[in-house]
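I had to read the description of the data format several times before I understood it. In essence, backbone conformation is discretised, so a fold becomes a row of integers matching the chain in length. I therefore recommend that a typical entry be quoted early in the introduction. For illustration, here is how one protein appears when written out as sequence plus structure tokens.

***
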Amino acid sequence: MASTETGTAAEAAGTTDDPADGLAADAATGAPAAEAPAPAGQAPAATKPDGAQPDRSGGDLAGLEAGLDALDTKVSDRQPWLRTLTAKAVPPLVAVALVLGLWQLAYHFELKDHYLLPSPVDVARSLQDKWLEGTLLDYVWTSVSRGALGFLASVAIGTPLGLLVARVKPVRAAIGPILSGLQSLPSVAWVPAAIIWFGLSDATIYAVVLLGAVPSIANGLVAGVDQISPLYLRAGRTIGARGLTGVRHILLPAALPGYLAGLKQGWAFSWRSLMAAELIVNAADLGTGLGQLLEQGRELQDMSWVLSAILLILIVGIGIELLIFAPLERRVLRSRGLLVKS
């Protein structure tokens, strides 16, 4: 009788020795089933804590990639050309209108005598006279052609010089400080020496342009090469890009942002050097550029003439920057993911 009561109590408590009965009880109550004991001679299987998920290395990797993608810099999308034109053109036009307004006020209140400070209308009339004479475009073309030819020659000389200084340590130690010194030297200081060497000729003008632009281009390329990650250079050597092949396919593309900055500065130096040379080197057989036009206005004491020549020099410099160097810079930055939305 006692044993019967004991068995009945054990069954009521769910502690029977029959595994099937235990599984049935677990299914009935919704409790997790107990693991069956491992057979004799086998190690028990490793149990996982409650709530643990199975190993999903693929899912973890996908999550990591998604996180890295979220950190990527968002490259700017191309906007409609009308919106871009408005955003680019309106601020400069407002600035020009403000300058013209202040200029007109200075003329109206006679901060200087009218023959010393003509009005914007007087300067515009002087430009109109040159246009009607048919000589205005000739002045501009003479200077632009000289500047372009001198700049191309400066690029042809400054690029290999910059590569040599950047990659050969003895050459850098010997020539690097000289290039920096030449870059800081005003271009007009070379004009007397160039006149003595070459006389009143085009060679004098081009010599001044080269001496002003070559150091800037070379130093810009040196700065660009110095900013290249050593990993790129090692990767290039690994795939066999050595010598001129490595320079063409590895070195110059990697140094392109610094090189482009050097080209922009080189053009600015060449244009300023050209104007300084044209101001001083004045001969009948050389043709008349913007610098000679400026000097003629000074000789005639015609401030409208002088200011119109200065205005033309400024317009040409800004036009070259906006039409050539600014699009190149945007293209390089966009190709490298550096042109981002503000």
The CA atoms of residues 225 and 252 lie 8 Å apart. The two ends are 90 Å apart (CA to CA). Residues 303-335 form the longest helix (33 residues). Residues 1-52 have pLDDT under 50 and may be disordered.
